[in-house]
Design a protein that fits this description.
With 678 residues, the protein is of the alpha+beta class. The protein folds into three domains: 115 residues, Sandwich (Immunoglobulin-like); 296 residues, Glycosyltransferase (Alpha/alpha barrel); 122 residues, Immunoglobulin-like (Sandwich). It has 14 helices and 27 strands. The strands form seven sheets. Strands 1, 3, 5, 7 and 23 form a five-stranded antiparallel β-sheet that branches. β13 and β14 form a beta hairpin. α3 runs parallel beside α13, α11 runs antiparallel to α12 and α11 runs parallel beside α13. The longest helix has 18 residues. The radius of gyration is 30 Å and the shape is globular. The chain starts with 19 loop residues before the first strand and ends in a 7-residue tail after the last strand. This is Alpha-2-macroglobulin-like protein 1. Belongs to the protease inhibitor I39 (alpha-2-macroglobulin) family. One of its GO terms (molecular function) is serine-type endopeptidase inhibitor activity.
Length: 678
């Protein structure tokens, strides 16, 4: 360093190398019981010969083929490499470590015609490489949630789905002092589903806003939580701009769609507007979206439905003019526009003229919009009408769709459809939408909260995207209005077999996730809370289904998929293919599968190609799931993927004749080698 300022020295280059090293080759993952060749390749960088011993460390997590030695000895001369292999079978689930050591040995014998040397340094090289061992099948994960206040208790039966893989069952209990705690802990994975369109991206964006608003109002927002949420908001904001169109609107797949979507544009607009308090949002994006909505406001004040909405599960919900207009109006008010704004004023007038609708979902949206708009009379009338159609049981309150509900195959788990959760959440928001909520309305709201909290998945979200966004917004609003410093609460979870877990919750740890494993599966459990505050208790159980235990119908090659439910078509259909161990997809062929986003009554084929990347023996069937993204309970299909011929590229064709509401079936796949394959 000079007397004034800094100086940089010339760059110095240093080359270092090991005298020899070992490299392991193994597949990314296998299913328990499958076998593969673990390969260790040793390279000699020296100009002399060495004699090496290569050893695979023993482990209870895998088996080596009988008769094979755990160590190999061999000569390696200058710049030579050799591969050694062991046939291993995975026996334990989870991440299994393989440890291979290579040591240069003192040797008096010649390697060929040369004497061997032992490096002065680097005489041993050890590599530890993990392998993911899975149970196979499709993971079925359910949760049972309870909001227990003061002296309360609840019994539940911990079950696992039929035909699960033996020894793969897992269950745990989670205790939190805050109903927003689970979502806060899992804000980056609220859904156990893939992401990939303009709406799905927002489920990772909007909940951050509501949780931060709640934590700010309750004085619980720490610098750590704030930094984490800021990162999610920033990345979500940048990702969502990929779905913005040149005219200022937003659509599910951005510029690849024919036009923008009214509903999604309003959703993005209000979310970006609310996020301005926490992250930089370019005002131009707000202005562009607002102007686009203004251009699509009709003379009546209602909003024109433009573009395709992927979720049709609401049966005339936001696809009709009135419910869409109610949603957009509420979004404008949440954005902070004044009641004197001409666009808002005309929109509210449109809603007043159409408030006599009998559709429950539309009534819930209207009640919320009128509450935000200060029209207490209209809001009260709609809430009174909704109250006549509520479903009340066990101190809980919710609203059902008028269409026939899907039967639940597991009554001890709560599995409300996405649209039912969303509709109920809007009713809760309507009750909480006025500046001063009456004691009677808060009492009703508490019953709705009890029902909503029971519908949460193990990550704090719900079944799909919009129910997660709206329900978390409503729960955060309720939590902010009812927040008070927690007094100590003791929670005891006990089983009939005598096992017992105890938890202590107070104001200092109310946001801390406390968790314990439950050993008795299946089993009967009792949860007891003792204290003057509320605690959120969630029991989660998961296990992969055993595909081989299910019977498979014979389906002719060339069969295809079609929807046979009550609606004209599904919502966005999702194909999840878990590939056979050692295989990778041909990326070019995957583009053909993404060309279709829904299933209709017409037959449709989905074809993609796989290539073998790593040989695996005793291949277990891989699984394919085909389901409705927004109504996972209606259209669900499990299928085993046929075992593949080693070394060949295969083309796989879906072989499903039809998918009926509530059905769950296992299918076979017809193998068709591409042209030229042998």
């Amino acid at each position: 360093m000079a007397e004034v300022g800094f100086g940089l020295s010339p760059t110095a280059t240093l080359t270092a190398f090991k005298p020899f090293f070992v490299e392991l080759a193994l597949p990314y993952s296998v299913i328990r019981g499958e076998a593969f060749a673990l390969k260790a390749t040793v390279f000699n960088y020296l100009q002399q010969c060495i004699k090496v011993q290569v050893t695979l460390a023993e482990s209870a997590q895998f088996q080596v083929q009988a008769g094979e030695d755990g160590a190999y000895t061999s000569c390696l001369c200058a710049d030579e490499g050799k591969t050694f292999q062991w046939e291993v079978t995975a026996t334990s689930l989870g991440e299994v470590n393989f440890t291979v050591s290579t040591e240069a040995l003192h040797n008096e014998e010649l390697c060929g015609n040369e004497l061997t040397v032992v490096p002065a340094q680097g005489r041993v090289d050890t590599v530890i490489k993990p392998l993911l061992v899975q149970a196979g099948g499709i993971l079925e994960e359910k949760s049972h949630s309870s909001l227990l206040c003061q002296e309360a208790s609840e019994e539940f039966s911990l079950q696992v789905p039929a035909n699960v893989l033996a020894g793969s069952e897992r269950a745990h209990v989670t205790v939190l002092g805050d109903i927003m705690g689970t979502a806060l802990q899992n804000i980056d994975r609220l859904l156990a589903m893939p992401y990939g369109c303009g709406e799905q991206n927002m489920v990772r964006f909007a909940p951050n806003i509501y949780i931060q608003q709640y934590l700010e109002k309750s004085g619980q927002l720490t610098p750590e939580i704030k930094d984490k949420a800021h990162g999610f908001l920033q990345s979500g904001y940048q990702r969502e701009l990929l779905y913005k169109r040149n005219d200022g609107s937003y659509s599910a797949f951005g510029k690849s769609d024919a036009m923008g979507n009214t509903w999604l544009t309003a959703f993005v607009l209000k979310s970006f507007g609310q996020a301005r308090l926490y992250v930089f949002i370019d005002e131009k994006h707000l202005k562009d979206a607002l102007e686009w909505l203004h251009r699509h406001q009709l003379e009546s004040g209602c909003f024109q439905s433009v573009g395709r909405l992927l979720n049709n599960a609401l049966q005339g919900g936001v696809v009709d003019e009135i419910s869409l207009s109610a949603y957009v109006t509420a979004a404008l008010l949440e954005l902070g526009l004044s009641l004197r704004d001409p666009m808002v004023n005309r929109a509210l007038q449109c809603l007043r003229e159409a408030s006599s609708t009998s559709d429950l979902y539309t009534q819930a949206l209207l009640a919320y919009a009128f509450g935000l708009g200060g029209d207490i009379e209209q809001r009260s009338a709609l809430l009174q009408s909704l109250a006549q159609h509520s479903v009340s049981a066990g101190g809980q309150l919710h609203w059902q769709r008028r269409v026939k509900a899907l039967p639940s195959t597991e009554p001890y788990w709560n599995q409300a459809p996405s649209a039912v959760v969303e509709m109920t959440a809007y009713v809760l928001l309507a009750y909480l939408s006025v500046p001063s909520v009456s004691a009677a309305d808060m009492a009703t709201a508490s019953q709705i909260v009890r029902w909503l909290s029971k519908q949460q998945n193990p990550y704090g979200g719900f079944a799909s995207t919009q129910d997660t966004v709206v329900a978390l917004q409503a729960l955060a609003k309720y939590a902010a209005l009812t927040y008070s410093a927690s007094e100590a609460v003791s929670v005891t979870v006990s089983s009939q077999g005598g096992a017992q877990q105890e938890f202590h919750v107070d104001n200092a740890n109310r946001l801390v996730l406390q968790q314990a494993t439950l050993q008795e599966i299946p089993g009967q459990y009792m949860v007891q809370a003792s204290g003057k505050s509320c605690v959120f208790v969630q029991v989660s159980a998961g296990a992969p289904g055993d595909q081989q235990a299910r019977q498979s119908p014979t389906i002719a090659p060339g069969s295809c998929c079609r929807y046979s439910g009550e609606r004209p078509a599904t919502n966005m259909a999702v194909i999840e293919a878990k590939l056979p161990s050692g295989y990778i997809p041909d990326k070019g062929s995957l583009r053909q599968v993404t060309s279709c986003t829904d299933l209709t009554k017409e037959a449709a084929n989905f074809t993609f190609s796989l290539e073998q990347d790593f040989p695996v023996k005793n291949l277990r069937p891989a699984t394919v799931r085909l389901y409705d993204y927004y109504e996972t309970g209606e259209c669900l299909l499990d299928s085993p993927l046929a075992q593949l011929v080693s070394g060949a590229s295969q083309q796989l064709r879906c072989g499903v004749t039809e998918i009926s509401p509530g059905s769950r079936r296992r299918i076979s796949m017809a193998d068709h080698p591409p042209a030229g394959a042998r």
